[in-house]
Each structure stands twice: as C-alpha cells, then as structure tokens.
Amino acid sequence: METALVTGANKGIGREIARRLVAAGMTVYLGARDAVRGREAADAVGARFVQLDVTDEEQVASAVAGIESLDVLVNNAAVAVEWGTPAPEVTAAQMRAAYEVNVFGVVAVTRACVPLLRRSPAGRIVNMASQLGSLSVLGSAGRVPDRQLLAYSSSKAALNALTLLYARALAPVRVNSVHPGLIATDLNGFAPGDGVGTVEDGADLPVRVILGESGTGQFYGEGRYARDGRVPW
Length: 233
What we know:
The chain is an alpha/beta fold and 233 residues long. It has a single domain, classed as Rossmann fold, CATH 3.40.50.720. The chain is built from 7 helices and 7 strands. The protein has a 7-stranded parallel sheet, sandwiched between helices. The longest helix has 28 residues, at 92-119. The protein is globular and about 45 Å long.
C-alpha cells in the first residue's frame, strides 16, 4: 500500500485529493495548520491527520518524522494575499506572506520528505501550480494576465522553477506542476462565473497525474492556454 502526504488539505482541492487517494487504496496523511479542522477533515475522508504549518520548519520536521514511508507528496498549501490590489500597490509584506507559504513552505516540506521519497520505488511530487504562474501566459493578452496578482503569480512562477530543478535533482523521483483549472475555493473568494469548476473538478487532473504514468518536469494542465495537456512555462 502506498502512502501520501497532502499539505493544506483540511478543505478545498487538497481535501478532495486526499479523499480520492484514500479511495484509491493509499494511506494518506492529511496536513493542516488548524488541528480541529484538520482532524475533522481527516476523519471525514478516512485519512490520518498530521498538524503541519508549512511555514514552521520545526513543525514540518516533527510531522514528517512521524511518517515511516512516503510515495507521494502533494504540495497543495497556498495563499493569495492581494485580491483586488493593483500590482503597483502590492507591498513587500504581501510578497513575503505569499512566498512564505507558496515557495519557502514547499522547500521546507520537500526537503524534509526527500529521504522518504528516495526510498520509494515510485516516489513522486505534485506541486499545485497555476496558469497564473506561467510566464508565457502572463506575457499574453487576456483576462488571466489582467488579474495583476503580483505576489501570487510570481510565487507560482517560482514554484514552477522549483519543479524543474527538483525534477532534475531528484530523479528517478517524478516531480511535476499541475494547474487544476479555475476552481471556486476560499483562496479566490469562491470566484463565480462561467467556466469556474468545483473542488471535485480541481482534483481530477492532480489525481490522474499521481495515479498515472506521468513524466517528470512537466506542467500539466487543461484549458485555453494548454496544449496536449501541458501549460507552457
């Protein structure tokens, strides 16, 4: 039986990914900052709760120390701090807050999990990215780059760089970024509108990448900007 760790998974897409991996027969550790909500979510989906604030390296180390083996790491925890703020008005404090979770948190958790993943016969990491982190998309015209999410978009671009560097350094562990689509979650204020999916929709592609024969160093995604199931870097 394989084992997975999903960060930021007490709600939203992370919780749905955890639920589906449990349904697929995995032992799943559901990571969350809030102990009450985390335990409730873990109980609801049949996972094991582990208290995990990705910005607290001591807590990261303690959480991973309680996991004996690991085949799958899903770096799902993320924040968006500047909704409605024009890019020129985003502060350095907002940038630090976004990078603390979306980039440095990924590094802390990944570093702690590498020894376990290297021992797995099929170790893999899925980084929950976004087309808002695609430089190709941000340089184009349209509603997506017009969102001007300076902290979020740049942190997701940095996450994509981590994906490529880890994919090379950790082989044969497979490391990929996944754009789950535009999904209504509390991260984006449950964004309404045409083409906005549910958390169930958002979990579809990440779970397929986890359970399927994916490559490594890829940016998987679907939608307007994707070609053959890949989003351009």
